[in-house]
Design a protein that fits this description.
By secondary structure, the chain is an all-alpha fold. The chain has three helices and no strands. Helix 2 packs across helix 3.
Length: 79
Amino acid sequence: MLRRLVAASCLALAALSLGCAGTEPKSDNVAKETLDADYRDCESRAYVSTALISSPGEATDKQQEIIDACMQEKGYAVK
């Protein structure tokens, strides 16, 4: 069971990192390093939270919801 979870997590991370290579969060008043670290933290939460969702479309939608909510919690305005 644990191997399956790890494998699913790794596949999700690989697929999303390849598919989202062109998008990058931006902020006017926060250092890029801080913004990148906050976004990576939110992405990690999203990937772990959706690792067991078998539908790719549903997983992607849920991941984006989690990332948006996480970034809002950190004080960013989500567009």
